[in-house]
Amino acid sequence: MFTTSILVRFGDLDGAGIAFYPNLVRFVNEAFEDFFAGHVGRPFHEIHGSGIGFPTVKLEMEFLSPVRYGDTVEIKVAVEHLGRSALRLRYEGAVAGRPVFLARNTTAAVDMKAFKPVALPDWLRERLELARG
Amino acid sequence: MFTTSILVRFGDLDGAGIAFYPNLVRFVNEAFEDFFAGHVGRPFHEIHGSGIGFPTVKLEMEFLSPVRYGDTVEIKVAVEHLGRSALRLRYEGAVAGRPVFLARNTTAAVDMKAFKPVALPDWLRERLELARG
Amino acid sequence: MFTTSILVRFGDLDGAGIAFYPNLVRFVNEAFEDFFAGHVGRPFHEIHGSGIGFPTVKLEMEFLSPVRYGDTVEIKVAVEHLGRSALRLRYEGAVAGRPVFLARNTTAAVDMKAFKPVALPDWLRERLELARG
Amino acid sequence: MFTTSILVRFGDLDGAGIAFYPNLVRFVNEAFEDFFAGHVGRPFHEIHGSGIGFPTVKLEMEFLSPVRYGDTVEIKVAVEHLGRSALRLRYEGAVAGRPVFLARNTTAAVDMKAFKPVALPDWLRERLELARG
Asked: Which candidate in D12, D18, D47, D63 is best for mutational testing of the C interface (most C CBs within 10 A)?
């Protein structure tokens, strides 16, 4: 299973002194990018440059425990569902072993000019299959 | 039903030229703040100053249509569920009548020092009841 | 002189409980956008859509007093210098009359495809001249 | 001289498809944090936890070349000036050897309760002296 780490920065906090939850959503997207570079084997900006994008269709996210300044959030990424163009990934965030969030993000491969779904390319599907979990 | 409007700024976009979805999550939180100032009748920063916070426990959000630069997102806010300390709000975002997102955010009144749930104060519960929808 | 107002949001704060200074830089850019919509008379996204951009070349900013949650920052915008393609704007931020920042931003009209400076269009130069201060 | 690296993320871009300049200002602050953890030898969140903060007083920043998606910005950090409580740091950002920004940030050690300047602690001054450049 692919894992990445993100450090909580000063500007990630909110008025309550904990990580602002929209910033934790941003962490999920950064984990998605790291998953492409680290597991899929092609950085997301190259894929995006080829005209395919992955807009988020649905996000479900539970915030289990506060995330604080200086924490390193370890995020496990797994593919839960794989359709023709749609895919759903699960992101489990933890700080020093303590679960802090659980997110499910449904996205779809989209032709960014027409903003229409396209089939996942075979080479990508193969890489995604290997990250099932 | 309470409604607020948020303008999509240059910095809200992402590499695909549409609103970055974590920024739309931030819009949901800004609508929550506007709901407190505009419907509840007390700005959120006053409530927060009194030691009560509303950390998000769960977020479910569907992204229905791309949001673009210069769009004004009109967000309808309604209270869907009201517990002892928990509350769930629904946020319907639209651009010129076209639905762009639907979000449900579950939060709870929390004593920010102990980070423990507390009962919603009566005056707040009354205001929230009036926003059922 | 053109003036706009921006409300300090929960997510604009940092770990010190005051507005995170890069977010105040973002406020300067939002004031630039409001200046285009409100004074120049054409929203910035339309100008940008026409292929001209205004990347920031230089920023000088003094932070005079802390900006807090719930503050409304009133920002006065004035044109200080106008070249063939370059322009420098001054932004004076205040909260309830108390100065909180002073920024000078030098930008230039740029053809966004070639990323080369272009002359400011006449209609825009005329509008900018009227905002000298 | 201390150097750190920051990867440009999808959400760091703006409507022009290059890094939004307030996000590059955020990079400067992240380099400041990395300088504390990596050179000073104490993570900034520990220092902040002790009641001392470093609010930015003045920022001067030149944007020399566009920063794009997927770029890794290498940032060199040097201490330019060291007063009783004030310090000015220089940040030189480059992508693959190409300079992209030059920033000077003046800050001061501040007692975060009183929001008044305090003398830099001796142990910190010694570490900062070693980063002169």
From this structure: D63
